[in-house]
Amino acid sequence: MSLIEYFRSPYRVFVREDDARLILDFLIAHNIPFHGQKNDENTFSVLLYAPYYKAYSKLRGEKRYRNESRKRLGFFALTARYRKRKGLLVGFLMATALLVLSSLFVWDIKIEGADVIHEKVIMEALEKRGVYLGTFIPSLDTEITEQALILDVEGLSYVSINLRGTVAHVEIRERHNETEIIDRQTPSNLIATADGQIEALQITGGVATVKLGETVRKGDLLVSGIIDSAALGYRLVRARGEVLARTTKNYQANIPYETTEKVYTGKFFSQKSVKFFSKTIKLFGKDSISTSSCDKIESEKRIYLFGFIALPIFITETHFAEYELLPKTLTREEALRLAGKQILAMRETELSDAEILGIYTSVNEDGNTLQLIQQVECIIDITEEIKIETAQ
Question: How far apart are CA 198 and CA 244, in angstroms?
Fold first, then answer.
């Protein structure tokens, strides 16, 4: 049932399925509008709005079809049911007043255009600038907020905030595939970050000070930003490019055999709360929970009026699973597996663009700790840019 239909509160007239043709012929013959025909378990029914239902009742009088029944639906049916209960009536009036007043506040924020930037980042930046669920709409200055958001969130090129009723529509545009702005004014050198043998030179700025096949040490100058020209004399430029070298990277992981492991006790606790706009009200749950020894899973569900109108009300449910940290002695295989994971994480971070030539592994043990050592022979870019300090 739509919202408009709910407040119009139609009547539904039920008859036996065998009498469906009779009631339809009667309604058509007397020009009585109807809609919402429904067949359900040998029963046929139609919807009549109040004026047409009165006309139907007047024409039919005391006559009814076999097993005919009539039922009012929607808003007026609800108020009729509770009209003698004054407390509910007062509550309804207060709720209506609250809805009217709440139209002056932001009920919902919808973000459009976020592809790379996470919506949570946008929401946090909006809240920092005073735009959140419950913001007093007349106090908003959307133009200032739009400008501030572009400065606050890296990667934004455009922001537009439009208020439509109680909903703030935030349209953003991200910067994609923009040409890098290259600083060619600040002079610099490129130095070596590791020992190695030069395999390739790809220089786009400055003058190379090394040659293919040459061996360099960490800290050696690879590309100079000082150019000596017979015609122009000395010039300072920004050194740019890549110097690929064959080098060996060393990685080490130490895993103690005596450690602890997380063991769940089987105790579970839950807490529920209601968030109205930005205010949170705890409903129920244990106050004595020590969250320091619990895993937490939190879920949030929004409340919708009539199933499609988003209200600024959220039900938050938090589940806690209690655990203990108990001592555990690792086997050699378990320690090796943990050490391997640690080294792999380090390699993936540092050697993501490297060409791996070989990996040499060794294991040391002293009874208390397992030590895994890996030497990775590879070809990587060993340049680091260092600014040339000049007198001002």
Answer: 6
